[in-house]
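Aim 2, interim progress. The first record below pairs a target sequence with its structure tokens.
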Amino acid sequence: MNVGIRRRTRRTGMSGRQLLMAQAAVVGSMAAALIVKELPGIMRELRIYRMTGGLRAKRRYP
């Protein structure tokens, strides 16, 4: 009887940590691509916001 002996099996797939790191890399690269794609629009909106007065224009623009 082999009660205390466990057999080790070799796993050929990814470990959980490797899978998590791969998913983080994919999500990070997608977020970076989205920011790079939207950056010109964000800069344009910031320029408009500064031209209208920003936080100083309290009652000027509803």
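The second target in this work package is listed in the same format:
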Amino acid sequence: MKPPFAAIAASLVCLLVAPVFAQTPTPAAPANPTSTAPVPATKRVTCLATTASLKGQDKRDQLQLCMAQARLDCLKQAIDQKVVGEPRKAFVRTCVGTDGADGGEQQ
């Protein structure tokens, strides 16, 4: 029997988030202007991680559902922040994580 998808998704999200909270900043760390800041994991990356253990149609279905939920969450955030027009589209694309080479289109 397969474990419920929600339990798998929650555990994978915890695996992604737990190291962030476990790190403590170094008090006197020298600034390095040549290094780049780490990019936060996008909702798309989280969706890909939660569907990594699935295969075939199950994987495609769960990825599509996860991405739809991510878009909805980002749209709600844009509405709460009163972002409208073209900036809203850009905000949602950035929030979901589809600003890359795929042109913002999902499966």
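Confidence is low (pLDDT under 50) at residues 101-107. This observation will shape the mutagenesis plan for the next reporting period.
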